Amino acid sequence: MIVRWKPQWYELDQSIVVGDVDLFYLSKDTLYFANGFAGDNDCEVKAKILNINHLELGDIKGIITIGLDYSIYLNDGNTIIVNAEESPGDIENSKYVVREWGFDVEINIIEKTGLSSKERLKMLDPNENKALQQERIKRYKALLDLTEADWDR
Q1: Which pLDDT band holds residue 38 (cuts at 50, 70, 90)?
Q2: DSSP string of the chain, one letter each residue
Q3: Which pLDDT tens digit goes with each residue over 2-21?
Q4: How many CB atoms lie within 10 A of CB 49?
């Protein structure tokens, strides 16, 4: 199924990487990736990211939303750094021009958990949440074939 990923910026969006299997939060109608503070207005799914595509940029390996800048990894090996804090959507030092920041993401839903992001957050203590984030970073780096990354600090 195709789900739309459109940034809200300010580190309010979910990172997505082709090949990743994780818990993701979608709008109740499952048409969009939830972002921001959806609370009870989203649904949790365990899914695999199969493909990410952008009308102007083509196929994408992954979008990392950690920190003040978002990193977009293109299939051709280039990386686009996009400001997500002071000037959201501005691309730093790049030949790329992007007029619209929506992405089509093909996913395979493995399981609908029946939880919302708010319910999941209540279930995790801060140490569990930190461990999950570190696990995700390790997976993202492996899937993107990176040994180090600016967002891993």
Answers
A1: low
A2: -EEEE----TT-S--EETT-EEEEEEETTSSBB--SS-TTSEEEEEEEEEEEEETTTEEEEEEE--SSEEEEEETTS-EEEEE-SSSTTPBSS-S---S---EEEEEEEEEE----HHHHHHH--HHHHHHHHHHHHHHHHHHTT-S--TT--
A3: 999 999 999 899 999 999 99
A4: 24
From residue 69, give the alpha-carbon distance in Å to each of 95, 100, 135, 145, 146: 17, 17, 20, 20, 17
Kindly report, residue by residue over 59-81, the tens digit of the pLDDT.
999 999 998 999 999 999 999 99
On whether the CB atoms of residues 65 and 15 are closer than 8 A, the answer is: yes
| Tokens read off for 6 | 């459109």
The reported pTM is 0.94
